[in-house]
């Protein structure tokens, strides 16, 4: 299996994985062809040097996993960098086969290479299996996160 930067041809597979769960079905608009807003967002992400959207391919070249890694510069920690992991998805046929762990190992190593002092993520409380998975990888629920949804 291979992890590489996402390309525009991967976008339908990525959005399909993001939309293919209880929460994603409520907020995503997966259709063929994809709405242009996904391509616009993809362009913004891939043109930003502090963003890395990656996919994992199986031996046949099928996209079976994805995540977005963002590098955030802070003044705290003496001007430290945090790596934020978002939008982790594994194709349903490949779950519980080590794909997610490989994606996280890659992301953690990449964060080290970029000089990050911390890797962080958020997970929805409605995803207890994801929380358990992250804890097994060594992540700790050390802070209480809060969100304010803006309906524009």
Description:
By secondary structure, the chain is an alpha+beta fold. It has one domain: 3-Layer(aba) Sandwich (Aminopeptidase). 36% of the residues lie in helices and 24% in strands. The protein has 6 helices and 5 strands, in the order βαααββαβαβα. It has a 5-stranded mixed beta sheet with strand order 1-2-3-4-5. The chain starts with a strand and ends in a 16-residue tail after the last helix. The model has no long low-confidence stretch (mean pLDDT 93).
Along the chain, the helix and strand elements come as EHHHEEHEHEH
Over all CA atoms, what is the radius of gyration?
A: 16 Å
CATH superfamily: Gcn5-related N-acetyltransferase (GNAT)
Please identify the structural class as seen in this structure: alpha+beta
CATH topology: Aminopeptidase
CATH architecture: 3-Layer(aba) Sandwich
The average pLDDT value, as a whole number, equals 93
Total count of domains: 1
Instruction: Report on the biggest sheet.
Output: 5 strands, mixed
Q: Tell me how many strands there are.
A: 5
Strand content: 15-25%
Note the total helix count: 6
SSE layout and pairing:
Layout: E1 2-5, H1 11-19, H2 22-27, H3 36-46, E2 51-57, E3 63-73, H4 76-79, E4 81-90, H5 99-113, E5 118-121, H6 128-136
């Amino acid at each position: 299996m291979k992890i590489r930067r996402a390309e525009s041809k991967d976008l339908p597979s990525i959005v399909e994985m993001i939309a293919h769960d209880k929460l994603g079905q409520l907020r995503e608009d997966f259709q063929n062809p994809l709405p242009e807003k996904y391509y616009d967002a993809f362009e913004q992400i891939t043109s930003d040097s502090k963003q890395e959207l990656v996919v994992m391919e199986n031996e046949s070249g099928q996209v079976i996993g994805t995540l977005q890694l963002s590098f955030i510069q802070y003044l705290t920690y003496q001007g430290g960098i945090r790596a934020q992991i978002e939008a982790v998805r594994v194709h349903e046929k490949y779950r519980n086969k080590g794909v997610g762990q490989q994606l996280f190992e890659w992301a953690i190593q990449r964060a080290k290479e970029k000089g990050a002092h911390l890797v962080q993520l958020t997970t929805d409380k409605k995803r207890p299996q994801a929380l358990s998975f992250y804890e097994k990888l060594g992540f700790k629920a050390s802070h209480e996160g809060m969100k304010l949804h803006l309906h524009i």
